[in-house]
Structures are given as structure tokens and as C-alpha cells.
Amino acid sequence: MTMIFRVEYVYWLCGIVLVACALRELHAKRFAHAAFWGILAAIFLLGDAVKSAAAHGSVLPQQLAGIGVIALGLIAGFLRRAPTEESTSDHERRAISASRLGHKLFVPALIIPFGTLVFTLLQPFVHAGGIDQLGRAEATLLALGFACVLATFAAMQLTRSSVGNAIAETGRLLDALSWAALLPMLLAMLGAVFAATGVGEAIAHLTAAAIPVQSRLACVLAFAAGMVAFTVIMGNAFAAFPVMMAGVGLPLLIGQHHAGPAALGALGMLTGYCGTLLTPMAANFNIVPAALLELRDPNGVIRAQVPTALWLLAINLLLIWFFAFP
Amino acid sequence: MYAILIAMNYWPLLGVAVVVAGFALRANPALVVVVAAIVSALLSDMSIPDLLALLGAKFIDSRNLLVLLLTLPTIGLLERAGLREHASNWIARMRSFTFARLLIGYLAVRQLLSMLGLTGIAGHPQTVRPLLAPMAEAAAEKIHPDIDLAERERIRAFAAATDNTGLFFGEDIFIAFGAVLLIYGFYEQNGIVLDPRHIAIWALPTAIAAFVVQSIRAIRLQKRLRENASPAGGRGRAAGAGEGGILSKHNHPHPNPLPPAGEGENRAAIRRKS
User: Fold this and answer.
1) I want to staple B15 with a disulfide (CB 3.0 to 4.6 A). Which of A250, B36, B38, B162 is the partner?
2) B63:A14 CB<8 A
3) Which of B71, B175, B212, B252 to mutate to test binding with chain A, by most A CBs within 10 Å of its CB?
4) Please, are residues A193 and A239 in contact by the beta-carbon 8 Å criterion?
5) Looking at residue B45, what is its pLDDT?
């Protein structure tokens, strides 16, 4: 059965939004910005063509995409936020509109989460267009895409806005996010490059070579510290887990000190999550929200998370020590 | 062990050094990441065509991370129509909805939804910026009407931190997604077959601990706001609620809880980083 609904459509929609924002910047004669969003738009629109070309043995499109990525990195330093004049009349207009529309304003905003929820739950039962064939991650993305389109229409209806207004507002928010919007993708790419070049194994070997393997305490501390440190470097506990388990967890804690695998696995992963709370490399959780919330300190969210992370790290260590060794 | 140390190529680790140095020197993070990837790949004896193909392929594979883009038109339009002002007014009117209750309630919902695998229904663009952050600020203003910009930013950051905590320490309990399957798959490859439910159950103590720790922090932040508020001329707790809401009686330089269009100082800080 041919699938009609594919997750690529969501990426194409992103690409179209990015093209619109790039054109808007071009119109404003902000060429660096237009190039930045334009390259990104091309990667979203052509990504699947690039992947299928690679599957058929042609790597040139992938290499061009690689050049595009390098260009994005070079342009990122030149992005400046457009000067915006926040006049008192704008503020008054918003206050009047807020009191006129009231709770109705929540409706489109809530369509995004609840629409995603409903579409995700419905998908196994929708047999049209092959939606029921999708994997879970794809299903969630597609549901989010549907919900966002629905919410955009609802918002346009409610606020009596045009597509032009919607694009202008998207451009304004994208401009506020700037390169921070791109950082999660770049970091995921970096994680994959580190994995492909053996950075993980090198760190695991160094850790394993540095600890006194006879001491259970030293092994537990090295494992936990390694999970946190490697998660901080990679920005992702999922990348750190196989590396630290292969280097320290399996041979030393399970093999030599007889830790229970289920408890060690779960608690080890959660120890890594404490690192996620602490690192700018987990950009989509820590740096993007700082930009979204317009904090002056780009590390403001991380600072707010430090006490939580340290408490949970200590609790996890105690849990491993007392419960992972039956 | 010595033989292994010899056989390994440790040079790609310099990619990690590039990241650390780049962040320390406050270079543009996007550039730092690209340079680190190139350095790490070149030092592993990868050819330049292979390097470019690797960067391109892996970047394309991570497109799912930018889908938050699709939430922006809705959020932008609603903000222009006063969403944040309304969220803030609404919280200001509700006396029983305190700062700590708001954040603890959000944390509980977020964590429970993550446990069910419903991680995508909340998040920084969808719920924190348009709803939770302005509500948290309004709730804080009920306690301390004259909070300064630094304190406002701490409150916004705390709202984002609460969302992250709820997400991270809820999702490990959901069996059919993400972390549990990764752990299960890793052990399976290494000849240890476990029941995924046994892995998930071990995430429960930390999940409870995360809820307790973050809740205590929310209560303590509320207490600190109260302490800071009380010496300031007895305008303490009751002020801010009732008559006409927050926005009408505030004429100080930051009348809007979260100014959507850049304030000078915000920009300056971000520029300094870039």
C-alpha cells in the first residue's frame, strides 16, 4: 500500500514557512538573514530528494547540503535583530484586544497541545492515507503539524488576520530566536559526527583506564560522573548512555561488581538527564527557551536548573549505591 | 589496557575541546558547533567529500528538531492580539492561584503526560512562552508588585526549568518510547534480556524526587518573593489582585510582562554572545 500521508509533508510545510520568512527579509534588504533562512528552507524542501539520491548512490546532493550547513554556521554570526519600535499604541491595542477577546485567546493556543494529543491518539484508527502505518515518532510529528495548521487558521479567524499578518508574526518570532532556532539541529549533527569519529569510545576508554576498578565506589562515581560529563558534552543522555555503559557500566559495574542491569540502566540514564539540565549543548531545552523568553542571560534557564540537577544527581547516586547492587 | 590505548585514535577528542573553548570564548555557538564537527571529522582521517556528505546527511536527519517552527504563526498572531496580557490578567484576578500552586500544578500535569508518552503536547514555544511564563510573572506580581526585570527573568527561567524537569523525569517511565527502549535495546545487543517494565519501574523513585525537589524550590521562590515584598512599604500580598488587573496600574518602564519586541538590553546581551 502506498502511503499518502508522510512525515515529509510536515518538513515541506516548514520549508514553505521558511521561504516566506526569507522573502520577507529579502524585501527588507537584510541579505544575511534572507540567505540564512533561504538555505534552511532549501534543506527542508529538498531534504527528502537528497536522501533518496543518496540511497541511489549519488552523494553530491548530500555534499551540497554539507556546504549549506557550513554556510549557515558562517552566516549565523552576522544575524542582527531587526529594529522594532514597540510604541505605546501597540501596547494599548494589545490590552484592548485582550479584554475584548478574553478567554477566546486561549482556544487557538490550546488547539496545538490538545490537537496533537487527539491526532496522535486517533492515528491508529485512521486507515485513510496510511496514517495507521506510521511509526510513533512520525505519528507525533504529523499530529503536531496538523494541530499547528488548524491552530493557525483558528488564530487567523479569531484575530481577523491575513496570511500576511501570520507570516509577519512568524518572522518576528523567528528573528527573536535567530541562530538559536538552528542550534538543536546543529548539535544533533555534531553528536552524530562525534559518534562516527569515535569520540565516545575514546572517552569511555580514558574513563575506564583512569579508575581503580576494584573499588565499587570509584566505579559508581566514575560511571555517574561520566554520564553527566558526556551528556554535558553531547547535549544528549541518549548519546552518552551506550558509551558509558559499554566503557564502565557493563564490564565493571555489572561484570565485576554484579549490579542489577535494570536498575543501573534506568538510574544511569536519569543521571545523564541531570547533565542535560546543565548544558548549553542541549540547546532546544536550555538555549532556545532563553531566547524565546527574551532573557538577557543566554544561560539563564541553566542557572535556574542547577539546584534541581545537583539534588537529583545526589539522589540518583544514593539510589544506585543502595538499590542497584542486590 | 595499554594496547587499547595505543589502538584508539584520540585526536577526534579535539572536537570536544573546540566546543569547550568556543563556548568559553563566547564565539557564536552555531559557528562553534560547525567548526567542532569539521575538526573532529578531519582528525579521524575522513576525506573532505565524506565530511561534507556526513554533515549534510546528519543535518537533514535532524529536521524534526525544528518543527516547533510551525507553532510560531499561531503564537505570534495571538501575542499580537494580547494573549500574554490576557493570561497575565487572568492569573492576577484569581486570588487562590498562587505562584507555587501554578508551577507545581503545571509540573504535575507535564510529568504525568510525559509518563503516558505525551511529551509533544507541551513545550517552550507551545506552552511556556505564551502561557506559563506570563502567568508565573503575574502570580509573582500578586506577591510583589514591584519586582524588577532581573527577578522577572529569574521567574521566566524558573518556568522553563519546571517544564524541562517535568518532561525529563516523566518520560523514562513510559515503556514504549525513547529511553526505556534504548536501555532495553542496549542490553539486548549485549546478551542481557530484560522486561522493559522492570527498567521503567526504576525510573519512578527519581521521578518522585524530581517532583518533590522542584516543588520545594517553587515554594521557596514564593517565600523569597514574599520576604522581598514585605519591607517595600506594606504593599505586600493583597495588592495586584482585583480592580482592573495588573496592566492598567503599571506605568513603569516594563508595563508588559514579557515585551515581545526587543528591549535594548536584551538585544545587547544576545549580540554580545554572537
Assistant:
1) B36
2) yes
3) B71
4) no
5) 87
- Give the per-residue pLDDT at A93: 86
CB of A258 within 8 Å of any CB in chain B?
no
Alpha helices (H) along chain A: 8-27, 31-55, 60-76, 88-101, 106-122, 136-159, 163-177, 183-196, 199-210, 216-234, 237-244, 261-276, 283-292, 300-323
pTM of the model: 0.81
Kindly report the backbone phi and psi dihedral angles of residue A324, in degrees, each rounded to the nearest multiple of 5, phi listed first.
Answer: -85, -10
Mutation target to probe the A interface, by most A beta carbons within 10 A, among B9, B42, B121, B190 is B121
CB A170 within 8 A of CB B17: no
Q: How far apart are CA A232 and CA A239, in angstroms?
A: 11
User: Among positive and negative, which fits the CA dihedral B242, B243, B244, B245?
Assistant: negative
Q: Please identify among residues 192-211 of chain B the ones whose CB lies closer than 8 Å to any CB of chain A.
A: 192, 194-195, 198-203, 205-206, 209-210
Closest CA in chain B for residue A295: B153
Q: How is residue B258 annotated by DSSP?
A: S
A-facing residues of B in 37-66 (CB < 8 A) are 37-38, 40-41, 43-44, 46, 49, 51-66
Distance from CA of B116 to the nearest CA of A (A): 11
Residue A137 phi/psi, 5-degree rounding, is -65, -40
Burial (CB count within 10 angstroms: exposed 0-12, middle 13-18, buried 19+), residue B95? exposed
The full set of domain ranges for chain A reads: 8-80+93-181, 196-323
Q: How far apart are CA A228 and CA A275, in angstroms?
A: 4
Q: CA distances (Å), B266 to each of A21, A61, A80, B272, in order?
A: 23, 39, 12, 10
| pLDDT of B237 over the 60 cut | no
Distance from the Cα of B84 to chain A's closest Cα (Å) equals 8
Q: For B70-100, how does the pLDDT look when each residue is reduced to its tens digit (9 = 90+)? A: 999 998 999 889 888 898 888 888 878 899 9
Give me the interface pTM, i.e. the ipTM: 0.85
Smallest CA-to-CA distance from B173 within B209, B145, B141 is with: B209
Q: Per-residue pLDDT tens for B114-130? A: 888 777 778 898 889 98
User: Is some CB atom of chain B closer than 8 A to the CB atom of A259?
Assistant: no
